[in-house]
Amino acid sequence: MTTSPQTAGVRLPAHLPHPFSPAGRADPGPAYRWLRAHDPVHYDPFSRMWWLTSHADCAAALRADGLSAAAGQRERARSDALPPSMLTTDPPEHQRLRAPGQSLLGPAAIRALADVLGADVDALVDGLAPRADGVEDVGAPFATAVFGRLFQLPRADWATFAALARAASVNLDPLAGPAVAMAGRAAMGELSRFLTAHARTVTEGPLARLGADTRLTERERTGILGLAVVGGWQPLAEAVGNALYWLLPRPDAVALLREGDADDARLLVQELLRLEAPIPFTARVARAQVALPGGTVPRGGRVLIIIGAANRDPAVFERPDELVPGRAANPQLAFGAGTHFCLAAQLVRVCLELLLTRLVRRHPSLSLAQPSGELDWDPRPLPRRLLGCPVTTGSADVH
Ligand code: HEM
Q1: What span, in angstroms and rounded, lies between the C-alpha atoms of 144 and 355?
Q2: Which domain holds residue 36?
């Protein structure tokens, strides 16, 4: 184990733009590669955080008892309109809030959701215009359908829900300025009121079971729903654009998805999530000195676990910057790991497999309308998302 590099003051070479600088945000990859190779547990003086870029360090940090998610999330908390959620609490309180979430996102809920979502996905892909946007016209309505079904929202409320979810999603951006943060707080309040009022009307199904759970107060219940929306709606929508960015330029991968079996789709979705994790990092604070494989974080140290860098670590992934459709061993960290592992990971995977498979089966010539190298990434670091993902179905007569 190496010692803390903070005093050593390892600096990024001048030719590599800082990943949070305007030049570095669109493509933080080169800086992450350098850090992973030269200083995997790196003290970044700009953010005053310890940056972890190797898979071994990120995976260990996500599971480390000494690193507090509660304190880490407070670093960027923008909302006092919601009570503490499972993501902003540490064990043992965390489990009290997480366990009831299973009734909403666990295996029974996934089975029920997959049954009804199929028809929504078919309607979505059948209605796709010959030229469309992979996020606005596919990802966003898909995410809305997933939540609409999950939360048992009446169809008439889906558009209102989508607008609220979009507005509240600004809370994801840890670098948002004061005006955006204030708007995010207001949106969160509005979303919470909407979800509370809706939950009171539901008498059966997963949402009602969550409502009947005596381990939670109504405010805590709303907190779980609100966290799911802020942590899930936009990442799910963007995951679609990010996936199409890698998938569509690869006819072999598209063919595998179109003609292959459920296992092929499962491996491919894992690989697409690895390449462009919509949540590229998360934060923690060290309650005590924490020893990681690549270095030590001192007590009180603020830690940035860079999932996007870990997922491209050549020590774990052969050809890390390439789409490898049948990659069998794929310990990607797009959903985190350990105590706070995404409660909806399985649900997200199942829904993405369903959408992408039906999309390429219905539109066999679907392709990017521009070369992928010409598409722009959002300069905001979180979520990792394309500014636009124009696609063409390749047949003006489809419908
Ligand atoms: C592609 C889409 C998604 C990605 C990439 C993603 C990723 C993540 C990650 C990385 C974490 C861990 C954060 C941390 O350790 O600090 C997390 C936690 C969580 N996610 Fe997701 N997520 C996605 C979609 C969703 C959806 C759709 C929902 C709900 C319907 C959801 C619900 C949650 C919850 C409740 C937690 C907190 C778990 C806990 O603290 O115990 N996520 N997610």
Answers
A1: 13
A2: 22-392
